[in-house]
Amino acid sequence: MTDWNRYSLAQLREHSTARYRQAQGSRPDVLLIEIDGEQAVLKDFSNSDRGFSHFIGPLLVHREVRSLKKLDGMRGIPRLLRRVNRYAFLIAAIDATPASQLRDCGCPQSFFDNLNNLLDRMHDRGVAHCDLRSAGNTLIDRNQQPWLVDFVASIHQGSRWNLPARWIFSQFVRADHSAELKLKKRLSPELLTTHELAMLEKQGSYLERLARRAGKGTRNVTRRLFTRGNKPLK
After folding, report:
1. Where residue 163 sits, what CATH number does that domain have?
2. Is pLDDT above 90 for 201?
3. What pLDDT score was predicted for residue 150?
4. What is the count of structural domains for the chain?
5. Same domain, yes or no: 72 and 157
6. At CB < 8 A and 24+ separation, what contacts does 74-82 make?
7. Arithmetic mean of pLDDT over the chain
8. Which residues contact residue 46 at a Cβ distance below 8 angstroms, ignoring those fewer than 6 apart?
């Protein structure tokens, strides 16, 4: 078994066999690493724009690592192998296809049942993903099992006495399940029930819409201040 802690960031990058994403602006490098026949995925903000890498990258790494630690051992969530440094972390590679690369794939109802169960277990551990509307953050493996990735936008449930934070968390739980229905419409629309179709016709809650606008606004301001390579979101 590979001891991933033995390798520096530079050494890990030397063992890269594929690039899923190239660092640019606020985007990190996402690299497939292979050592001794074992694979891992490296997410590294080191080569993002300098201002973003220095000020924002470590915050995003901290947020994602924190969520992965809370979800450790859960089937359907990649295992955190290590935090390499303040700019990068390593997770176990998953042999799966992003849902964004599929459409009308005829996924069975069991896939969506398993995805719903995965969301429930994730929420029970106090984590809401908050970015499942991006179909690329849901993966489908060869056994048609769901996996969730990219927890950079995730939030955690507030403490028992913090009622406002817990209410906000509940709204993002709803948003995760709403994204699940949108994914079902994309992949297997024939499986949608009458009730699910009615739910899709309803717009998201005021908080969901406000959160999406705030998120886009925050990212646009961040990109303008700290990057040169990304255009504002529309």
Report:
1. 1.10.510.10
2. no
3. 95
4. 2
5. no
6. 74/118, 74/121, 74/122, 74/125, 75/118, 75/145, 76/114, 76/118, 76/121, 76/145, 76/146, 76/147, 76/148, 77/118, 77/122, 77/147, 77/148, 78/41, 78/147, 78/149, 81/4, 81/40, 82/4, 82/5
7. 88
8. 9, 23, 29, 53, 57, 87, 88
Residues 187 and 126 in one domain: yes
Both tokens of 91, joined, read 């997770």
- Give residue 76's domain range: 4-92
Q: What angle do CA 206, 163, 161 make, to 5 degrees?
A: 165
Cα–Cα distance for residue pair 137/158, rounded to 1 Å: 24
Per-residue model confidence as pLDDT tens digits over 94-130:
999 999 998 777 889 999 999 999 999 999 999 999 9
101 lies in the same domain as 193: yes
Instruction: Tell me whether residue 213 is in a domain.
Output: no
Residue 173 pLDDT more than 50? yes
Residue 155: pLDDT band with limits 50, 70, 90: very high
